[in-house]
Structure formats: C-alpha cells, structure tokens
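worker-03 picked up job from queue 'complexes'. Input manifest follows; four sequence lines, order preserved.
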Amino acid sequence: MSRITLLGTGLIGSFYTEALHGNRGRDRVQVAYSRSEERARQFAKKWDVPSVTTNLEEAICDETTDAVIVALPNHLHEQAVCATADVGKAVLCTKPLGRNAEEALRMLDAVEKAGVFHGYLEDLVYTPKTIKALQTVKGGALGKVLWVRSRETHSGPHSDWFWDKELAGGGAIIDLGCHCIEIARNFIGKQIRPVEVVCWADTQVHPIETEDHAIGLVRYENGAIGQFEVSWSFRGGMDLRDEVVGTEGTIWLNHWLRTGMEVFSAVGTADYVAEKAENSSGWMFPVGDEVGALGYVGMFTDMFGAIEKRQSPQENFYDGFVVNAIIDAAYQSIRTKQWEPVLLPIWRGSEGSNTSVILSDYDAEHVIVKQELMSDGLTKLILKNKKTGKVTDKTIR
Amino acid sequence: MSRITLLGTGLIGSFYTEALHGNRGRDRVQVAYSRSEERARQFAKKWDVPSVTTNLEEAICDETTDAVIVALPNHLHEQAVCATADVGKAVLCTKPLGRNAEEALRMLDAVEKAGVFHGYLEDLVYTPKTIKALQTVKGGALGKVLWVRSRETHSGPHSDWFWDKELAGGGAIIDLGCHCIEIARNFIGKQIRPVEVVCWADTQVHPIETEDHAIGLVRYENGAIGQFEVSWSFRGGMDLRDEVVGTEGTIWLNHWLRTGMEVFSAVGTADYVAEKAENSSGWMFPVGDEVGALGYVGMFTDMFGAIEKRQSPQENFYDGFVVNAIIDAAYQSIRTKQWEPVLLPIWRGSEGSNTSVILSDYDAEHVIVKQELMSDGLTKLILKNKKTGKVTDKTIR
Amino acid sequence: MSRITLLGTGLIGSFYTEALHGNRGRDRVQVAYSRSEERARQFAKKWDVPSVTTNLEEAICDETTDAVIVALPNHLHEQAVCATADVGKAVLCTKPLGRNAEEALRMLDAVEKAGVFHGYLEDLVYTPKTIKALQTVKGGALGKVLWVRSRETHSGPHSDWFWDKELAGGGAIIDLGCHCIEIARNFIGKQIRPVEVVCWADTQVHPIETEDHAIGLVRYENGAIGQFEVSWSFRGGMDLRDEVVGTEGTIWLNHWLRTGMEVFSAVGTADYVAEKAENSSGWMFPVGDEVGALGYVGMFTDMFGAIEKRQSPQENFYDGFVVNAIIDAAYQSIRTKQWEPVLLPIWRGSEGSNTSVILSDYDAEHVIVKQELMSDGLTKLILKNKKTGKVTDKTIR
Amino acid sequence: MSRITLLGTGLIGSFYTEALHGNRGRDRVQVAYSRSEERARQFAKKWDVPSVTTNLEEAICDETTDAVIVALPNHLHEQAVCATADVGKAVLCTKPLGRNAEEALRMLDAVEKAGVFHGYLEDLVYTPKTIKALQTVKGGALGKVLWVRSRETHSGPHSDWFWDKELAGGGAIIDLGCHCIEIARNFIGKQIRPVEVVCWADTQVHPIETEDHAIGLVRYENGAIGQFEVSWSFRGGMDLRDEVVGTEGTIWLNHWLRTGMEVFSAVGTADYVAEKAENSSGWMFPVGDEVGALGYVGMFTDMFGAIEKRQSPQENFYDGFVVNAIIDAAYQSIRTKQWEPVLLPIWRGSEGSNTSVILSDYDAEHVIVKQELMSDGLTKLILKNKKTGKVTDKTIR
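worker-03 finished. Artifact:
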C-alpha cells in the first residue's frame, strides 16, 4: 500500500484519485495540495482525503506519505519535482514532463541525482487496449511497424492556463501531442531513435496565440513514422484513436467515441455523458469506465507495482524528456517550414537501426512484389527480376 | 480488506482471482479448494494463494478467512452454500444459483436463516457498460423500457460437466440464459414481476441431451419483454450484446466482439486473443481488459463494499432464485409449446404494475400517434380522433 | 426497355420511380394512377411522368405500357392484380401480397391462370448486402444455416391506412414482418418448408387496435429458425439488421443506422437525413444511396431482366403467398398463446428435410463436441464417447 | 443513350463496363480496344461488347460511337486524349489525368481547343456516401471546413506498369493520392486555391524505385488542410476512409472495410470477397455493391447526364490538372524536405480567401473560447477579455 501526496486538485487530480480510490484499490491519497483553500476542502470531502493544505512544501514533506504525484499546471512541474527529489520521495509527474526539453532534462537530472523513483504519468500508453495491442506487436503479429497514427482531438481544455503559451509551453501540441508521440514511440520501439520531425500547425478557430490544430510526422531511424494529430477545434466529443500498420498486419484502436456503447434519447439525459461529450440527447456514445479506458488504472498499477519491486516503471522521466525533445523539434519545424532534427543530448537507445525488410522469393530469378486474389478467381502476382530489376505481372490459378 | 476462501479453481475461479488480485486490489484469496491436488498446486502458484486443500469443509472452516466464494459446478452449489451458512461466513455464489428454483429457494432459506451475507455472482450486470447504461435508464433517458434483448452465444463451455444435463441442470439456457434474464430484469426493473415465458430450444448441432440453442421471451407485468438468446453453436467468437428499447430511446451494448479494438495479422499470433476467439490470424477482435469487461471487477467492488457497509449487494440470492424460476418456466414452455407462468412462491417486488403509456395531444380532439420528417422537407403526422377513434394523416411544414 | 403503369403515388411509389428513373436507368413510368388528382399532378411533375390519371382501369389498360406495378394500400392489391391479369400484362405487386393467405392465394391463382409474369416486390432481399450474403451462404461459407434474425423497427408508418387493421390486414407484423420473414426464408432456403410459428405481440405505445411491436419464431422442417422482430415504437431511426448463424459461420448485416457514414453537427442540418431519422443535429447516420440500400435498384434489375428473359424472378407471387401463410400462423399464435402450424394448401418445395449435422471424429471411440484455445495457450477439447455417450474434457497442447 | 469506345480492358475497364452495363443501364460499350488480342476477345465475351480491336486509332474513330473512355496506363493518356479531341468526340479520361501537371495541361489545352466534352473520371468523389456528405457540407452542417483526411491504402496495384516510375509517373502518390487530393478539394471547396504542400514518402517495403507509402498535407488559401495518406504496404484489405472536420461538425466515411457487412467463416469461401481482400476465412468484410460503393455508377450518371445536357460534369480536365499540380508539389517537397508551392499557371477559382472564423460573445467584454459540461454537472467556460487578451475560466450552472 502506498500513501500519497497529491499536488493539484483539478480535473487531472480528480481522475488520478478516482483511479486510486476506485474499485477495491489499496493505495490512498493521504495529503492533497491545492492553490485554493476552497477547492482543497471540496476535494477532501469528495474523495475522503484526510489532510489538505495550500502550502506546497508542507504537502511534499508530510511525514505520512512516501510518494508525491505532481498534477499541477505545466509551469509548476519543475519546482515541485525538484522539491520532492530533495526530500528523497518517489515522484510521479503528469504529462508533459516539461514545457520543453531543457526543463525536462533538469528534472531528469534532479531525480537521478537524488536517486529517487521517477514515473512519467503518460496514461494513454496504459489503456487496456493499448497494453493488449503493445503485447500483440511485441509478439510479432504485425511484423515490423511502419507507421503509427495517434489522434487526440476535442473542443479544447477546461482550465485557463492551458490557453496561455507561457504557462503551458505551447498549445494543442504540448497538451495532446505528448500523448500521441509517446503512443507511437511505444509501438515503434523505445530503443529506436527519433530522428527528425515535420509539423504543420495553425490557430484556425480560437483567439489565442498558440496552435489549436496540428499534424506532425516523426521519422525514426528504422524508417518508421509516428504521426500525431491534435486539435482543440474538433466537434463531436473526444476523438481518441490509434492506428498501427506493420509489414504483416494492422491495429485500429478507438478509445472513446465508438467503443460498443451507443445510446439514443429523444428526451435527453440530465447526466454527464462522457468527458468532452458535446450533446446530451440524440445519439450519444458514453464510455463505461472512464478512468479505466483512459489508462489511469493500468498506469498506477505499473507505477506502484514498480515502486514495490524497486524497478523502473514502463514510463519514466527519460521518456518524458524524449517526448519534450520531439515536441521542441515540431515547434521548430512550424517556424522553419522544413524537417527539423530531434536534438537528444542524452540517447539511451540503440544506434544504427536497420530500415530494410525481407522479401519472399517467387523462384530463383524473381522476388514477389505482391499478390492478390482477383474477382475472376485468379491470383495476380507482381514479380521483380533480381538481376534486371524489371517488374512484370503474372496470373496464376 | 477481505480474506477469502475460494471453492473451485477452474476457469471461473481463475477469472475471479484475476479480478481480485489484479491491479492494486486489496482483497486476497487466502485459501483455495480444488477437487484435484494437481490443479490446486498449480493454482496456488499462479495466483500466489497461501493455502490450498482438497478438503471442502476444511476450506470453508479455515479461520483465516471471513468470506467464501462458491465457484463450483452447478450440482455442488447447494452443499457448499449450506455448509458456509452453517459456519456463519459471508457467502458469494456463482451463477446460476441453483439447477432449478427449488434448489435456489433452499439456498436462499439457508443463508437467510443463518443471517449471513449472500451475494449472487451475476457478473454481467456489473460490466462498465451495463452499470453506465442502468444509470442512464434510471435517469429517465429511455422513458419506459419496452423490450430488452440480451444475447450470449459462443461455441460452447470448456468443462465436461456443463454438457451433462444432470450435473448442470440443463444446457445453454441454464449456462448462459441466467445472465441474459438477469440483465433484462435489471433494465426493466427488479420490482416488476415476471409473469410468463415462451421459449424455443433445440439441440441443433451437438451430440448431447440438452439444448445447444434457445430463444425465450419473458413477459413482465408492466408489459415489458425480456428476450434471451443463447447458443453453444455460434461461430466467430463470443457474442455478448444487449439492446434496450424504451418509449424515448434505445441503448446498444457490445461487450466483446466489437469494442473498438481491431487487429489484422497475416502471420497470426501465437498469443491468446480473447475468451472463445476462434481465429488467431486474419481480422481479430480482442478485448483489452477481459476481467473488467466481463464485470468481475465491478461485481467484487459491489460485493465487498456491501459487506463492509453491512448492506445487501445489487445481486443477492433472492435474485438468483427469481432467475431460476424464470428458467424453470422456460424449460416447461419448451415441453408444452405454449406460454408458461413464472411460479414465484415468494414475491418481494411490487404488485399491479401499469402497462399504459402517456400520449401527447395534437389539439383538443386529437392525440399524436406519430410524426416524421419526410424527404421533401415536410412533416407528416398520424393523428387519432379521441372520440371517433379514426386515424388520419396530415402534412405540415 | 419497359414502359410501366404505376398504381399509387405515395412513399413507395416515389421510391420505386426514383429507382427506375435514377442513375442511367432505361425503364420508364409512362402512366401513373393516383386516388387524388392533386397528388397525381405533383407526381407527374416531380418524376417526369408523361401521363397521369385517377381512373384505375384506364391506367391498367393504357396501351403504351406493358407492365403494371401495384403500389397501393394493402386492401386494394387484389382488385388491381386481378384487373391487370385480365388484360394480360406483367404484374409486379408491392409487399405484403395479401392481407392474409386466402387473399394471396386468389391473386396467385389469377396470375397463373392468366399466364402473366408476376413479381413480388420484396425489396429487402435485393439489397446489395443481402444479395452478396445470399451468395456467400449458397457458396457454403456458413455451413448449414441454423438461425436467422431479421429486424425492422422504426417509429411507425407515414400513412393513415397502415394504422387501420381492416385496411392493412394487421399492424407491424403485416407491415414489416413480411420483409423479415422472407429474408430469413431466403437464407434458410426457399425449398425448406416452414412448419410452425410462435409469436408475441402487443400494443405497447400507440392508441391503436393492432400490434405495434412483435417478436416471432418460425420453425422450418430442417430445424432452422427464422426470427422476426418488428416494431412501430423504436426510437433512434430505422433499425434494419439481419443476422445469420450457420454451423460454420456468421453474417451480420446493418442496412441503415451503421453503414460507415457518421455525421456530427452542432448547428444541425435543414436537409433530410434519412428515412425515419429522428434527429437532425448531434450525431447522425445518413445512408448514401437510399434506393440502392433498400434494394429497389437490385429488385427492378431482377424483375425487368426476368421479364426480358421470360423467366420467373427471384420473388414471385408464390413467395408472397407463403409469407402471408406464415403471418397468418403468427396472428393465430398470438391469440392461442402456443405454437401454430403454417397452413400451406399448396407446397412447392421439398419434403422431409433433414435436421442432422455431421460431426468430426476425434479418434475411433470419440467425436469432438467442441474445442477452444484457452488463455494459458492450451487447447481444451470436449469429447463424447460414441458407445457410452459419456462426455469428458481433455487438454492438449 | 450513349455509345462508347472503351480504350483499355484491364481492371479499371472492367469496373467501368460493369457500372455501365449493370443494373438497367442504358449506355453501352460498343467498341473496346485492348493491346492484346486475347484479352480483347475475352472482354467482348464477358461484357457482351459488339466490336473489339487492337488498333487504337480505329477504336477512337469508329463511327458507331460518340464518346471515348480512356482507361489506359498513365503514359498512354495524352496520346489517346489528343487523338479523341482531334476527331471531335467527348472524352472521359481515368485518373490521374497526366503523369505530371505539364502533361495534364497539354491535355486540357487539346480538349478545350477542340471544344469537346471532357470528363475527369475521379470516381471516389462520386461514391454514394461522398455525394451525400458533400451535400451536407454545402448545406452548412459543418460550418467552415478546417481539415480533411482522405486515406487510400492497400497491398499494391495489380498490373506491372504501376510499379514502373517512368510509365506511371510515380508510385503510391500518383496512383492513390490523386483520389485523396481531389476528395479533400471537393470538401474544402474547389474555388479555394491550394497554396503549398509538405510531403513525406518512403519505399518502406517493396523493391522498387518509387514510394510505397506517403503522407502529405496540402494547405489551402483559407487555412484549410487536405491530408492524404496513401500506401501500397497496408495489410488487411483496402482501407478507404475520409474524415472531414469543420468548425461546427465532423463527418466520418468508411467506404470499404467497415460498411455494415461482416462475415465469419471457419471453413472459408472459395469466392472473391472484395477488391484487395487479404483473407478468405475468419472475419471478412465484403462490400455489397462494389461498383456502386466505388463511385463508378454515380460518376457515369453525372458524366453522361452532363453530355446530354451539354454541361460540364462535376469533374473535368481542369480538375485533373489541379490535382497533378498538387502532386508535383508533393514530389518536390519530398526532394527538398520543406513546404513547396503549388504552381498553377492557370487558376480559375477565387482569390484572397479569408482565413478567419467568427466567435460568439459571452458579454460586452468577453468572447467565448470554449465551453464544456463537466462530470459534476457544471459548465466550464473559457473566456477571453477583448481588450486585455487575458484568458480566464469560469464555472456556471
């Protein structure tokens, strides 16, 4: 059992606590810090938290807790993380780790120097579907992963600081792209180096300084592409989908809007439908178990299990740093309108990943380029002559 | 925290333990009973259970546990339940409660006389989607529930005793129909009396004495219909769907084969895909979190939460008894080829439920039968004259 | 090219004409009959029909046409069909053929005695998906068909006469059940005799004399079951789905509400969304090509192709008669609350269809009851001893 | 009725003829040209074509036909188009128009100088779903279109010349990207100028010189983005999906793999399942009416209708030229690794399209940035002060 200090009582702090205290969980938020006394009181009541405070240092140092969860706005991560490292407690920080790679690197240094446990709370790589899909990919069912599309779009975040470039470190990319980038990185393989990024972004709808819509491509050393699609201007709810294409197969994940639960109501419902739902009558698509579906349950199982086993979790601060470095390259690409390198002063993965794929021979002279069953029942082959390089087609029964 | 004796180490015992010990659960299986020493040993190792035995009484009486879960074949429920009631422990029994209503009633009597906690382990009313859908229906979004279809079909159960009419108490109806009947009963309202049943069943495929396919209709006093569809001859995986139709809306739930996770693999996977999956290459539809999706997690949260709060859980032995009584009527209808009454010597719900629905007036003389927007942009009304009863149509802009 | 007299200019007449005149069709409605002069004029203008009349006989006898389509209310079918047979023209009659089997049989007699082409306009067996699925079943991909569910439910028909028991011949069963029954019959095999029916029906919502919701089971001589589900009280649009289960496979067809076109609009659309759509903002599910998706295009291709080739179409008046006979049995079952035989004074299919299914041997002594890959990677077999009949399970690698 | 010369008897020629001769179509392929005598004969027999030849000029000049359809490999388009223009017949050319914009421009010049009808056979903007979706967008249901994703990926084309860079003009982009680009352009508005393109492409799997996978972004003058995703390395069938996001709504179209038809077969089917289907047992997703679903039927309805009405069709050679110009920019961007301008020597759309979007006021001082219903039932607003620009959040009931 872990006793936890939670820093921050906003939407993300609520989701975390619901995941921890829900079902028959054995971990407990013991101390909660909020910037507002009023919110602190309400939070304590709602989630049955014994102790609340508006003093950050007090919350971190509280002797009844052994781990600190940082669920604060982006500009407050570094301070909170460093203060926790100083007192030698395990620290778990919400996404994104930093507002940029420089900040993230300082946090990584701090926890590694202090020798404390560090977990990067990237929940979306822990959804039940993602965990199962990652196993499937690792088991070889997709062959080599060639491309991953990860998409998170909705109508925009719920707190003011997200919309402030300075406090958040950016717009939809820093808010949502961090998820998509790390999802793709998990599928492609964390040991594969992300090499360069090209990114489009625009402020299409909202009266803000930062981007409310962006599409980016991250090229990895082995030739694989991670594609992120993020928006604060999407209409229809929260669109949370991943697609993985490999040489041998494909995976499609839909985490939110089409998960096998469909409700039509002519009179509508007074209840909450789902996070970011836009309508409460007509056809609606709720999610049965939101904290499960968003990966919070799986994430804390990994985190607190790792703490108990004195291991590193699946996602740690080094991962958070890599994600920030990729985001930095994306912002740079928006400015320069060209591909930009991912700058990684520290690289802990492998070097020189292979881009090649092995092909099947048709006979001694030809490799098979592709084959397809046609509507007339015949099979059509595309062959390449190994010597001449000439491509021909051939029909067989 | 609950310390549990688990009776039975088959598939259902494994699912229960996975739900209890999984994630960061605080309850523990302390003692497991198996009829086979070999299976007991394997189970203890796999799930980290401190103590195993092949002596049923020893397992029930073990002083380190305060609750007993009965996960035995159907013909062994009564004995195990009564023995647990005798020692005054909380008893949780898997579905179906009895092989028939008579057996179920004796078990209900036993636990009520002993004054012990009794939970009926009907997992499928606790799936995340079902819990959310029941809230939606209770909130009024569907108006009055008119019809519920609940379907569970797959290629047949995995242990021999299921296929033996005497040991199981029947075939696909007793095995799967118990789920479907209780799902419908939850949506229609447990206080509404089930009145009569008509049922078709046949042994279409397998060389067995009992039915491997059945469709039944349960009529409730308020006019609502619960429809169950069960089969051991379905091909394609496990089809687990519910549909609810009310005067104001509709709910469609798909728990297994189409939940937003789709995998194609040309090379196939060596891994387990999902319970009852029939193919391991081509297009596959795994489930991210099986024990969650099947309701085991939500079920034990309710059960052990109720024990702690000294309340009755959502599903108790009385519910199990009602389900058995409905199944008895279904088997009787198969024999007589007509509607058969549901015999409930004890009825604890309401009496005289209303079958009527309130209609909207169009004007002083007419009620609206229906209205529809046509493809030419006009609205077509069907009206009924309150006095003459004559139905007419009318087109308005 | 066919020149057509169309009798009736309501919704169904419009759909028929849209199918005939749409795309690059070569057949033409030459003469249209309407009971109302006003509607006749509007129809002629909208669909570019050269000649309209309110005189039924004139329309049928018009010398410029060689085929007559009956798209009139149910109580007017017999008169129109007989008048057409009398003048020796091809006659195509909308569904249901008669209000009951007696009426249908008289119509069948009339056309057969006159020796004219007769087509039964059961559009839903001609949808692109149904045509393809029937080919798949005939090709053997599903083995023996065991069960077909066909469902058509919506918020009720758009013209007054449907709601009048006398004029229509019944309620939702005669209106919608005729589709579902014939769909199932096509999948099971038209040569297999329908033996008996059990049916529940009720007037759950509307202030009418006939049923607005019904579920029926039709048992065929080979043991297969055709299940129809019809309602005028469904909310959410038009639910048009079929499911086919065979010994070797499964087919799921969704013709209307989930066909791969999904639209969300916060502001809504002023346009028509789809037949029976209930909402015009929020999430909507239009159908791209309604007359194609409903089978009208495929149906007329078969009908006029058959006329040209002097063949009988896929659906003729004998089929319409069989459907009416099954519906009669359903209405009888509602009254008697038991299974009722399907009375077929004329049966043109096969006799004595086999109910058996062939099983695979495991070894000399055992047949395989079922097998399943379990989550531990082992395969579990259920075997039956051929001599003793004993069922056992066995785990293999 | 049109009498047609068809040049080319490969897969695309077959699809075209199936669309023209299918159902009750009134147009006819009168003359077919094939490079191979054998294929010409087979084609004539299969599709009942009166006259075939291996002489291109003869086919074009044949006096019995009034329109010529060019269904030849890409490198033969220009010659065939110019020869047809010379004889003054209507010319319909398959996609892509040219191998590059220069070639396309010459063809546009030729037909315009000759004053003949010219149709660009871009079938995928004519699918039933796309036609309906374009109406929905034009009706305003989505507000301003911000982003369109169009995806076409499969396992690669079936004839050798596609794989030869010289003959085809490129790889997956020229083969499939032409569809995606024109789909996006239709949704965004053909009058809006495409400004610049960034594109990633790679040869990830096949032993060929051209790209087998590419992702591109096309920026339009009004700020909208058209995203194309094309691949010859996708596994699982043909993935044909479009997504449209506007300020007020969203459209999702799935044309092939998930259209409401799902088949499971344990024994498999000997029949053709669908174009590019990769498996013939397990779960399969056929399409009911392929030539309809791919837009061929709607396309020829527009084309031959336009010829009869002496109008220009929805897609003409100018559109084909614009698509080629965008593809040229994409290939340039792959080389330079930066955004590249779309070079349009002739621009016939509007100039100076606006990028702005109108926002709603909250009160005199604030505009609404966004609002969301939270799980506690309260609504959270993000507001921006019109003078200071400061963003704040506010919770209301």
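worker-03 released lock.
The mean pLDDT of chain C is 95.
The longest helix of chain C spans residues 317-336.
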